[in-house]
Amino acid sequence: MRVFKFGGASVKDAAGVRNVYDVLQKVGYEDVLLVVSAMGKTTNALEVVIKNYFDKSKELQASVQEVKKYHNEILMDLFEEEKHVVFKNVTTLFAELEYFLNHNKSPNYNFVYDQIVSFGELISTTILSHYMNYKDIKTNWIDVRDFIKTDSNYRDAGVDWDLTQQNISKNVKRKVLNVTQGFLGSDENNFTTTLGREGSDYTAAIFAYCLNAESVTIWKDVPGVMNADPRFFENATLLNQISYREAIELAFYGATVIHPKTLQPLRRKEIPLFVKSFINPVLPGTSVSKGADLEPHLPCFIIKKNQLLVSLSSINFDFIMEENISEIFGLFHKYKMKVSLIQNSAISFSVCIEDKFGNFNELKNILSKKFQVSYNENVSLYTIRHFDEKASQMVEKNKEVLLKQVSRETMQIVTKEV
Ligand code: ADP
Ligand code: ASP
Ligand code: MG
């Protein structure tokens, strides 16, 4: 079985959905499991709905309406006649979303978040699956929440691999085209959970692992994994073949083309990952597989924007040592900070972190009781794998460098735009 993942960019409009049909015609669809994300920027739009809901804003209705209108336009374009059953199915999903907004009693933000954002994927897969059937490709729509079981760590749920393996082995049909949702799972009470933003690549890897799939292909708006994000770097070059290890490093440092959790399950079973263009599906793209000799021979650039550079120094000139560091990391973990760089000296300690969940102010107050805290907001972290002199000069040009760290293969530079 092959697993394909189509992300938000690939199904952002009616032309995108038609293109998925064309891709399937070209590359085949028997014995395939399709993992599909919410259409375009729907997850962001649903985050606005959640914010309005908690703020008790009078914009709430309008924000739901916007998501409806966007999907309705795609439906009208794809199906022409409103009698098609897909209109009723999508209307039912929106009615469920509104029912939840009107009746929910839970004050738990993360729980509510997952119950709401999940409609993005439920709606996109409903539309896509009906469209394929409407044309001549028969699909088997499945609810991923019956397969991927997780803990109740809403918005960043951890997979229960044993239960998930059992469900997938027992109940995924072979030899057909299955269509399911990326990003979602469910906990032991069958409440919806999510695997973290951009988590649909990870969903594809979970299915591939449990199905012992032949391969995973993630279809992108770029030719494959490149040595830099082409949005920010001119002359980005396609990497034809890279090792799991290299891909893990690139994803870990923030190359958003692959979600970092995707690689581990695939590497464990040596399932190849292909990253290909949904615009030119027959081109080879990038293949990620085993092999130490697959290191790229050119510098690879990764940029993470909107980071915080935080420096802690001890108030009494005490050393910052093991016990302090473990306490500091305990707090980072508790407040869900993603740490992407660490540097310490005898009496000070600096980290570059990402405040994905908006917890920094609270954390800062706690840290200030023990340490002198200074920080820069909105800094960029550049990582150069396989760096050379020219590469670092290029990154540093016209920027203020706040911190730099060099290891054998990797150079990291924290900068502020000037
Ligand atoms: P999806 O639709 O699957 O969610 P994303 O938008 O998350 O797709 O990922 C594709 C984007 O990743 C590209 O448009 C590109 O801007 C960005 N990207 C970041 N780093 C790289 C890289 N090293 N190679 C290719 N694309 C990259
Ligand atoms: N729709 C989710 C998000 O935008 C998951 C994904 O696209 O991978 O984060
Ligand atoms: Mg995405």
UniProtKB/TrEMBL annotation:
InterPro entries: AceGlu_kinase-like_sf (IPR036393), ACT-like_dom_sf (IPR045865), Asp/Glu/Uridylate_kinase (IPR001048), Asp_kin_monofn (IPR005260), Asp_kinase (IPR001341), AsparK_Bifunc_asparK/hSer_DH (IPR042199). This is Aspartokinase. The keyword Nucleotide-binding applies. Its EC number is 2.7.2.4. Pathway: Amino-acid biosynthesis; L-methionine biosynthesis via de novo pathway; L-homoserine from L-aspartate: step 1/3; Amino-acid biosynthesis; L-lysine biosynthesis via DAP pathway; (S)-tetrahydrodipicolinate from L-aspartate: step 1/4; Amino-acid biosynthesis; L-threonine biosynthesis; L-threonine from L-aspartate: step 1/5. It catalyses: L-aspartate + ATP = 4-phospho-L-aspartate + ADP. Gene3D superfamilies: Acetylglutamate kinase-like (3.40.1160.10), Aspartokinase, catalytic domain (1.20.120.1320). It comes from the Bacteria. It comes from Flavobacterium arsenatis. Residues 2-277 form the Aspartate/glutamate/uridylate kinase domain. Keywords: Amino-acid biosynthesis, ATP-binding, Kinase, Nucleotide-binding, Transferase. Belongs to the aspartokinase family. It is an enzyme of class 2 (transferase). GO terms for molecular function: aspartate kinase activity. SUPFAM superfamilies: ACT-like (SSF55021), Carbamate kinase-like (SSF53633).
